[in-house]
Design goal:
The protein contains 7 helices and 10 strands. By secondary structure, it is α/β, with parallel strands linked by helices. Helix 1 packs antiparallel against helix 2 and helix 6 runs antiparallel to helix 7.
């Protein structure tokens, strides 16, 4: 079993990625989605957590061999960066969503040396906006951002284009298409639902897939 399939199977087994094409969820943006994703649940499931964190560590070693520190996104990426950093024996830090309003008013927490080669750890990628803000903050602080490791990506066009425009390499452990295929194969959804899910992925603002 390849790592994309193994991680997909693990996320489905703990309800971290949950498909409900007939009763879509509503995102904060108002978009109707057949998918609910909460990778924080990984932290409460030791077996899946071990698989995911080892996969993050292995991906960093393979894709970013020059990495000197892991940087988590706030808040969901922090624990994953810490655990993978522990496995690798590597420093970690994280980037806040905004500067603190007290103390040293840091946005970047942890020691960051100008020129340091870092990898950003993120739990999921949708439109890519939040992780690109983290990449920009690190670059402004003088870090060399080698790229991103994320647990899951929706594979949305907007996210892919934003990451490309930011010149930010992004490797994900698993993706929307893999999880949809595994979900159909293991009975979480009907095989016929795969086309509906991909229609959502390709154009989230088009709700014609609902009720099909």
């Amino acid at each position: 079993m390849n790592i994309k399939t193994e991680v997909a199977r693990g996320l489905l087994s703990i309800g971290a990625v949950f498909f409900r094409p007939n009763e879509p969820f509503t995102w904060a943006s108002g978009i109707k989605s057949p998918v609910y994703c909460d990778n924080r649940l990984i932290l409460t499931a030791p077996a899946v957590r071990n698989t995911v964190e080892q996969a993050i560590a292995d991906t960093v070693k393979k894709e970013y061999p020059e990495c000197e520190a892991l940087i988590g996104t706030s808040t969901a990426g922090i624990a994953h960066a810490a655990i993978a950093g522990h496995i690798l024996g590597m420093p970690m830090g994280y980037v806040r969503s905004g500067n603190k309003d007290h103390g040293r008013q840091n946005r970047i927490e942890g020691k960051l040396v100008p020129g340091q080669k870092v990898v950003v750890v993120e739990d999921l990628i949708s439109t890519g906006g939040s992780v690109i803000e983290v990449v920009d903050a690190l670059r402004e602080a003088g870090a060399e951002v080698l790229g991103i490791v994320a647990i899951f990506t929706y594979g949305m066009k907007k996210g892919i284009e934003r990451l490309a425009a930011a010149d930010a390499k992004c490797i994900t452990l698993t993706d929307f298409d893999t999880i949809a295929e595994v979900a159909a194969g293991e009975g979480y959804i009907a095989p016929a639902d795969i086309a509906r899910l991909k229609a959502f992925r390709d154009n989230p603002s088009d709700e014609s897939w609902i009720g099909k």
